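INFO batch 0412 | record 1 of 1 | parsing
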Amino acid sequence: MAVLPAAHPAVRRITGLGSSDHIELLPVRPGVVNGEPPPDTDPDTSDGISDGDPLDHVDVAHVHFGYDYLEPESVAEVVGHLGRNGVPMVLTVHDIVYPTDQDALPHRSRTGALVQAAAKVLTLTEVAAQELWVRWGVEALVVPHPRLLSELEISAAVRAAKHLRGDEDTVVGVLLERMGENLEGPELLDLLAPAAAGRRGAHLRIVVEAQAWRDACGEDRESGGHHLVAELAAEGDWESVRLVRYEALDLKLVLAEFAALDVCVLPYRFATHSTWLELCRDLGVAPVLPAVGFLREQWFDRCDPADHSGEVYDPRDPGSLTWAVRSAIDEPRAAPPRVEGADPRTVMAAHEQVYRSAARTRKATPDRL
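INFO prediction complete | emitting tokens
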């Protein structure tokens, strides 16, 4: 089975197939599927992608994300190449409206082309499945997001987090992720400043993807951005402000920092679902999330919001963000449980069943699953 995007660790987590003995995962870059690898491809850093047509030994292609940079015409080429090779495609729709798009039409065009060509469409919530039916008339199978971390990873992160904060501290994190794709940092810090007013031991952590930070600041990884962090610290009564950088393909180094948070602000302008919400659930961090997409439904699915952590704010109302952060701090509650069917073994079984069903539609190729 081909997996797109190439070698992304979230794919193994989301499908639950990280340790499957029945299915071989072949990582493939979306831009390579059309049979024209980029000329600067280095075989030593190719994430296991072999030379030649990556579909030679593939029964099913599963597309998750990573196609957002392609033009709609390029998506059509990928779909056409899969069709000519007789390879059925399974599609998981994480985002119907992509967070980075100021103009949502390109992403909707790409997603629409993939939805209409897919042998089977999956998504993470019931409301997203309803939206896919309204937009494209497709019946999507709902497979909930499983937990991202094992019990061992969770306990290790929680133990390490104790060394990153005091017992009486209040630690608020802001996930700027790729920065310009969400709210601007200084603007967001201005809005958050009142949350620290009059609160002793209030600390702020700015969580950002490392390469995006280097690209934005034009400075080296070790010293870059300290002056900017100092400027941001002046925006509120925070006892400390610290930058937390993470590598997009390896979240291990940020898990303890994330577990040390009491609250994490997700400042998306647009989103349908969020993997970061599931990291909050794993580590017991209260998210403050915008009323966009289906984030609220993903977090509180089939639960009473009054009984669990998590606050929703209106991104059009600056005052609502301060209120949401203060409420999350002052009224700590347990994270809502995952819905039935989100157990990793159940998720893996659901994906295996979908792959077997799709593989039987492959043209002129024996079923090898």
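INFO post-check: The radius of gyration is 21 Å.
INFO record closed
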